[in-house]
Amino acid sequence: MIMKKVRIVWIATVFLLGCSGGDPKPEVSEGDLDRQVMLTHWADNIIIPSYNTFKILLDDMIQKSEAFADAPDEDALIAFRHAWEAAYIGWQKVELFETGPADRYTIRNFFNIYPTSVAGILANINSGSANMKTPASYANQGFPALDYLLNGVADTDEGIVAYYSTEPDAEKRLAYIKRITDRMDELLTKVITEWPTYRAMFISKTGLDIGSPMGLTVNAYVLNYERYIRSGKFGIPSGAMTISGETKYPDKVEAFYKRDISKVLATVAHQASIDFFNGKDVVTGLEGPSLKSYLDGLDAKDTSTNTLLSTIINEQFNAANAKLDLLPDNLHDAVESDNESMLAVFAEMQKEVRLLKVDMTSAMSITITYTDNDGD
To answer: Distance (Å, rounded) from C-alpha 126 to C-alpha 238?
Structure first.
């Protein structure tokens, strides 16, 4: 009787394998597919320490701004400007984490909407009490507004110092800088303070549904790459986003008034996207559970070449970096004198967008919930 049962089970197994149409699916690594482990790594080794590092940079910028306000001279201006540059570069490493507390406070809108509105800044200075929390105020504050106030109000450092020391309304201008930095400090403090509580939910809800931490984080990541790196830093200034592709907007580059850091900002932002994809620990530099390892755990491959999707994605990151490396430090000048080089970067990043937004999310069964109208 026992042998008969064994024979029946064996026959059924052979039948099922025969109906499967081919070889059994390769085994995947349970470790690579453990979403709680990955979410924990993201929270503890990437997102939270990245915000903490950025807070140090922002605090230094605020301290230098206060020193400049107390005694506006060229040395204090230069120190303030250098601290602003360092914090602006540091911002590029956290802007991609617009999820959880950062999404709740829409921190990007108050930190890095450009081109800045000079008319809006001047109106706010004259007002002294303008509302800094409305959408109409986004382009009047954050790093781009400080770019104008530190670098664009006069042609020389001497003239900039005079703007804040001896000219009429100098005190009101300094007061507005303080309003900007206070707002930035307030928002970042809220995000950092709320992350430990948010972390508990972030690592415990491991689903892939719309609204899950995994789904929200991946959406924020892809959105940042598509809209704020590919389009914001390259597509819009170069004219690639226009219907004809021929109208250039060099005045819309990031850091318009301190143009020699525009490439640095773009390069750091792009590298932050690469590092997050590969799960790079921001403290140790070692790779951990990541989008890359998850895709490998799924055995996600390009069907035409049988190449791992993660390999293709990283190769495309490298292709974009190769074009990015060829650009001059000043992206405004690149648009004006060699716009083909800007368009070349955009083209490589466009290929990356398709890989991340379509291939990666499809393999992971994650739904893209934001919309973009450029045909992706």
So the answer is: 34
Q: Are 53 and 282 spatial neighbours (Cβ–Cβ below 8 Å)?
A: yes
Residue of 164, 133, 157 whose CA lies nearest to 68: 164
State which H helix or E strand residue 334 sits in: helix 331-337
Taking the C-alpha atoms of residue 133 and residue 184, their distance in angstroms, rounded to an integer, is: 11
Task: Report whether the peptide linkage leading into residue 115 is cis, meaning its omega lies within 30 degrees of zero.
Answer: yes
**DSSP per-residue string spanning 131-184:** -SSSGGGGGGSHHHHHHHHHHTSSSSHHHHHHHTTTSTTHHHHHHHHHHHHHHH
What span, in angstroms and rounded, lies between the C-alpha atoms of 266 and 240? 17
Distance from chain centroid for Cα 349: 14
Q: What is the pTM of this model?
A: 0.90
At 278, give phi and psi (nearest 5°): -90, 5
Span 83-107, pLDDT tens digits: 999 999 999 999 999 999 999 999 9
Q: How far apart are the first and last CA of the chain?
A: 61
Q: Kindly state the average pLDDT of the residues 326-352.
A: 97
Closest to 265 (Cα-Cα) out of 95, 150, 45, 106: 95
Question: Residue 307: which of 346, 355, 342, 353 has the closest Cα?
Answer: 355
Question: CA 308 to CA 330: how far, in whole Å?
Answer: 36
Residue type at position 32: D
pLDDT in tens, 102-155: 999 999 999 999 999 999 999 999 998 999 999 999 999 999 999 999 999 999
Q: Which amino acid is at 230?
A: R
Check: CB of residue 354 under 8 Å from CB of residue 376. Answer: yes
Q: How far is CA 1 from CA 71, 250, 376, in A?
A: 97, 83, 61
Q: Distance between alpha carbon 216 and the CA centroid of its chain, in Å?
A: 14
